[in-house]
Each structure stands twice: as C-alpha cells, then as structure tokens.
Amino acid sequence: MRTVLLLPLATAFVTPHRRIPALQRGQPLDELEATESGGPLAWFLRRDNPLYVSVPSSAANSLIAEDAGVYDFEAQKEGWINFSLAVGAILTALAVLWIYPATGYSDDVLHWLEHDVCGDNSHLVTLAFGIFFPIVHSGLASLRPLAEQVVGARFWRVVFASCSLPLAYSWIVYFIGHAHDGFEFWNGEPIPWVHGLAWTINFLSFFFLYPSVFNLKEVAAVEKPKIHLWETGIIRITRHPQMVGQVMWSAAHLAMVGTTFTLLTMILLVGHHVFAVWNGDRRLKDEHGERFELIRERTSVVPFAAILDGRQQLPPDYWKELLRAPYALIAVGTLGAYLAHPYMQAGAALVENTGLVKGGILDPLFASLG
User: Fold this and answer.
1) Cα–Cα distance, 245 to 22 (Å, whole number)
2) Reported pTM
3) Interatomic CA distance for residues 360 and 368, integer angstroms
4) Do residues 133 and 234 share a domain?
5) Residue 164: inside a domain
6) What spatial distance separates the first Cα and last Cα of the chain, rounded to whole Å?
7) Which one in 33, 87, 179, 188 has a CA-CA gap of 20 to 30 Å to 161?
8) Of 162, 155, 173, 151, nearest to 90 (Cα)?
9) pLDDT digits 0-9 by tens, 218-236
10) pLDDT at 290 over 80
C-alpha cells in the first residue's frame, strides 16, 4: 500500500531512460549538455514533472469553476522581475514608513493605543487590534467591486495592502511579545508530545490558509487581481479553507501557550474568519452568480462534510490536484517560518525594548499641511 501511494510522487523525479549527468565543480558552462538534451536540470525541467507543470486530474473536463494551484513554469516565468521589484518596493515602504522607529509610525500608533487608549492593558490592546483590523481588512475587501470601477483593480490592491499590512504587522509583533500575558491556564511548550502535535497541526493549517494566494503576481498587482472561484484541491475538502486553517493554527498555538491573552487573541482571529465565511460567500455570489451556487451545492464549510454526504465526489487521481508547485512552496515556506521563530521572538523583543521614537519621515509634510 505504501509503495502504491509513493509511486506517483516518485515518477515525477525519476527518468527511466538514462542517468542524468551531475554538474561537476569547475566544469565550464559551455561544456555542459543543454537542459533540453538531458543536462543537469533535466530532472526538474520536464513536462511530466507535476511541480514544473501542473497535471490536471481526471475531473478537469467537468469543472465549472477554476482549477486551483495550476502552474506552468514556462508560461509563468516572465514578469517575475516586475514582481520582485513590486514586492521590494512595498516592503521597503512598509519598513521606512511603518516599521523602523526613527522613520516610521508603528511605534507612535502603538504607544497611543497602548498608553492613551487602553491604559497599558495588553488584553485591551489585542482586543482593539481584533476589532479594527477586521473592519479595515474585510471592509476594504467588501468595497472592492465599487472601488475597482473608480481607481482600477491594481491600484485598489495597493490601497488594500497599504492598510492591511501595517496593521497585520503590528498585531503579530504585539502578540509575539505579549503571548504569555495574563493568567496562565497551562503551558504546553516544555511537553514534547504537545509540541509535536501542535507542530503537525500548525504545519497542515498552512495548506488551508493560503489557497487563494496561488497567483503571487496578482497579490503584488503585477497582474490584474481577480475574485477567483476555485473548485479543486483543498476546496473539495472545505469551501472556506482559510477559516479552517485559522482554527487549526489558533488551536495549535493555544495548546502551546494557554494564557488569557493568547486565548483572547485566538478568539478574535477565529471570529474574524467565521465572519469572512458569510462575507466571502456573499462576495462570490455577487461576482459569479449561478456558478457559485453550483459550487456551494457540491462543497461544504465544515471539512469533509460534502464528501461524507456524497455531494462531493473525489476523482480517483485526486492527488494530482495537490501535488503542485504552489503547495510545495507553502510547505517550504511553513518550514522556514518555523525555523525563523527565534528571530521573530527576538524582533518582537527588540520592538518592545526600543519603545517610542516620536515622529517619522513624513513629519515635515504633516507640518506643512497643518
């Protein structure tokens, strides 16, 4: 049984005809055999490698919506320079205008929220973030159809990111720095089996959390953003994988750190995503009409419910809808995020210890307007 399950994965990387030559240290590039003829990268750059070119399942011809996670390296290799420049510009602006205390304003906003509004109560601060962030995030998403008619899809994506990213950064950093605040019900961090279970659930959660971010060029507005109606992959398990992933992620982190602060933060995060189930269905209905109703009939919000009651029929080669490059990228990114946890904690401590550096780079502009 194990051999049967591993066989499709193995065929993606094994060439049955001949051994692929290895790249030798110091070998001149002009002496290497061309990739198309079986050179050093031929093991990957093959049309039958599902991580290079997505392979549709046997249900592809019966789809009424989009096949999720489809990727063709050759068709999508252009535009990545523009993507890199766009992401670099966005992250630079975020760092200068928000993150770096000497030039940004995150410390000013947090100081005002923490000391002037919430009276140095960290629970009230995370409550404020948990109310304000969903209003901004879901509010701007709901305004998208109207706003795109006025300013265009790409510009509205920039507006959306410019408002959501700073708030998300500040809330995440504040959570990391204050996760142990309040009354502690339990502490699962030193218990090996709790850590292992939490790690596994957290790892799996990211395959649910990011199914709608398959086209990174749309995220960075390099390509025109669209409201996609997916039908395959994780969507067959649950129509709202981000909500399910958030529940899994929150449960895993709460199992590790059982404080009142962490509990409140997780309730706020899950609450936002539960609201997004209704809001997301409403937006998809407005955008896709009858096609969405057909998808809703054959999918479920509760994981596996539509499969168990027969409304969703998994194709026999369902694995082809999951063995795709975006899912591999999610796996690598999730492992990287886990390894980066000590640096995240150190960064949050640095932000906490730096404190308030009043003002920022836009002060002269604000002064002239005043």
Assistant:
1) 40
2) 0.84
3) 14
4) yes
5) yes
6) 72
7) 179
8) 162
9) 766 667 788 889 999 999 9
10) yes
Tokens 């669209």 -> residue: 226
Task: Outline where the chain has alpha helix (H).
Answer: 2-11, 73-76, 80-94, 106-111, 122-142, 144-151, 153-178, 192-209, 216-219, 241-256, 260-288, 290-298, 305-308, 325-339, 341-354, 363-369
Whole-angstrom distance, CA of residue 176 vs CA of residue 348: 6
Cα–Cα distance measured from residue 124 to residue 128, given in angstroms and rounded to the nearest whole number: 6
Closest CA to 282 of 204, 227, 330, 208: 227
Identify whether residues 22 and 79 lie together within a single domain.
no
In a domain, 262, yes or no: yes
Q: Six-digit token pair at 298?
A: 């054959």
Looking at residue 262, its amino acid is: T
Task: Measure the CA–CA gap between 362 and 366, rounded to whole angstroms.
Answer: 6
| Tokens matching residue 195 | 């850590």
Number of domains in the chain: 2
Each residue's pLDDT tens digit, 58-93 = 998 899 998 988 877 776 666 677 778 888 888 999
For 91, the domain range is 74-356
Cα 52–chain centre separation = 21
